[in-house]
Design brief:
3-stranded antiparallel β-sheet; flat
């Protein structure tokens, strides 16, 4: 080919986005009151203020390099956890023990006047509920990083060759890439709210909601009742009445509290391994929806009676905080999947971390 003449137009566009977000929150308190829960707000809608003074032990801790070194060694040098521990020790005026989530319910026996106060608090504790530690720390950190890049190229024109041919052309090229990563850290000490995650089916077409009113229920199946929020009308907990007594006794009959992965627990019932809980699975007929009517009475209905035909085991992370009007944390939606109703409609099934 020999080019005699040409008319060529070239164009391009380029977009590049980098986004780095970090959010942190620290909530600490001493005593029975937890900021953000019902009863902790003043009547004018402003948070009640407390004056806190450091004890002599706390002041001494400010200048104690040895104490800081020991704390650093004990918690493997995590700077965030070291800072939280040091703040709490300065506030309380005494050394504290840092432990993992499996030890959250262990209690350290108090001594002296503090012991008398602790015994009195334990005596006032409702039967079946875990005693209060008298302090709490909640720390949350979430970090995300995103990259998006896109370039477009286009070319058009006409070309005449030496042999008399005329060629018209149009060419488009698109190049794009994206990257995303996310990490989160959650630390709970003392009476800070812990999270346990059962599965919830939503029939109202919207995401799960939680009521402000709490009730006593042994969610983690340890013999002591926790105060948890129930799901709002239009949703219900997926349950397995294992002892067939017609009631849900503790968290072992829900999906999630035992392992913190409700979808994985549900997958154990998928007999034919088709990725769905349906009528091919023996446990399908035994699964029920636990909800409450307008008067607060418990209701248990089978999946068939609820119109549920199949539940998918596929799910994806959908983090979202569920809070009350006072901005107190009730729970957090962790992941979402789908279920199919017998009439062909689709609904959502969500794993919710309930604060206890």
């Amino acid at each position: 080919m020999k080019i005699a003449s040409a008319n060529l137009q070239l164009a391009s566009s380029h977009v590049s986005l980098q986004q780095h977000q970090v959010s942190e929150s620290l909530n600490a308190w001493v005593g029975e009151r937890r900021p953000g829960q019902a009863g902790n707000q003043s009547s004018g809608g402003q948070p009640a203020l407390e004056l806190v003074s450091l004890s002599e032990a706390g002041k001494a801790a400010q200048t104690s390099d040895a104490g800081s070194a020991e704390a650093t060694a004990e918690i493997d040098g995590d700077p965030r956890l070291i800072l939280i521990r040091q703040m709490l020790e300065l506030w309380l005026g005494r050394a504290i023990k840092v432990f993992d989530g499996r030890d959250l319910q262990e209690q350290v026996a108090p001594t002296g006047n503090a012991g008398n106060a602790g015994n009195q608090a334990a005596a006032e504790q409702p039967p079946g509920e875990a005693p209060s530690a008298g302090f709490g720390v909640e720390y949350e950190r979430r970090e995300s990083y995103r990259e998006i890049e896109q370039t477009r190229f286009s070319a058009s024109g006409t070309v005449k060759t030496a042999d008399g041919r005329e060629i018209a052309f149009q060419l488009d090229l698109a190049m794009k890439r994206s990257y995303y990563e996310e990490s989160s850290t959650s630390i709970r000490l003392g009476d800070a709210a812990r999270k346990t995650d059962p599965l919830v089916l939503n029939f109202s077409g919207s995401a799960a909601q939680l009521t402000d009113q709490r009730f006593a229920f042994d969610l983690d199946n340890d013999g002591t009742a926790e105060q948890i929020n129930f799901v709002a009308p239009g949703s219900g907990f997926l349950v397995f009445d294992r002892n067939q007594d017609g009631r849900i006794n503790n968290g072992s009959e829900l999906f999630g509290p035992s392992s913190n992965d409700g979808f994985a627990e549900l997958a154990a019932l998928d007999d034919d391994r088709n990725g769905w809980i349906d009528e091919n699975d023996a446990a399908f007929a035994q699964l029920q929806i636990w909800s409450r009517d307008g008067t607060g009475q418990d209701q248990l209905r089978s999946l068939a009676a609820s119109g549920v035909g199949a539940i998918s085991l596929g799910n994806i992370a959908t983090p979202f905080d569920l809070k009350n009007n006072a901005n107190g944390l009730l729970g957090q939606i962790r992941s979402t999947g789908i279920f199919l109703q017998e009439d062909g409609a689709a609904g959502t099934i969500q794993q919710i971390d309930l604060t206890v």
